[in-house]
Amino acid sequence: MAPLRFALPNKGSLSAPAAQMLAEAGYRVHRSGRELIVADPANDVQFFFLRPRDIAVYVGEGSLDVGITGRDLLLDSSVSAKEILPLGFGKASFYFASKPGGISDQAGLEGKRIATSYPNLVEEYLSEQGIKAKLVRLDGAVETAVELGVADAIADVVETGVTLKTSGLETFGKPILKSEAVLIQGDTVAEMPEAVHSVEILHRRLQGVLIARRYVILDFDCPVSAQEEAFKLVPGIESPTVSPLAREGWVAVRSLVPRDDAPFIMDQLWQVGARAILVSSLDTCRI
What we know:
The chain is of the alpha/beta class and 287 residues long. The protein is 29% helix and 32% strand.
């Protein structure tokens, strides 16, 4: 059986988090140097480290089976690869921006010059909005385009907004797109049963990591008289796990709770009489 061919970013903000997530899912992705290909024979996968902007093209053309890239890069590539799982990291918004006091809404882009590194994505968006404008394609650092007189506005990914402010620009209008890292798949995968099986396992493992990042395990001791109140606070996925304690009238309870809610749930459990309340992190899971 041919190994699953998996494209990963070789640099940029998505590279390290993608490798970390796959490692948590049980894949061997570590590079000892700057290798372009890393084999993981235990999982029957080959990882190809590529420029983030090229990943969607390789997957869309069927040269590789799956990959991790940004949603913005996928849509700008205009290839047939499809998003099959959002991965929860590398989040950013895609905005139009110009100098303060200049263009203040998207209608003001009519007939203007817009600099961007994502011409296909922006052109499609403008067409949907019925706006005609001239696109100026740049390969990066579009923030300087307005100052240098190349464009009247820019369209770019905004993470913190610091770079825009430094360049004397501000965003306007609603975001064009909400982007994040995504797992993508090529159309040719459906024609290969062994690849379909490998992708299903990959999908399940990554979902397990995503769930593990959102939840924690909560253990506590609880008086039987208070357990019904406690169960309302920790319903779990199916239901809490309950075990009798040696101390009569008490039970041990284990349940999954949302990570962000855990401190508040611990406070509430204490108030209803629970004690020995412990929180443990998950590495991965199957729900």
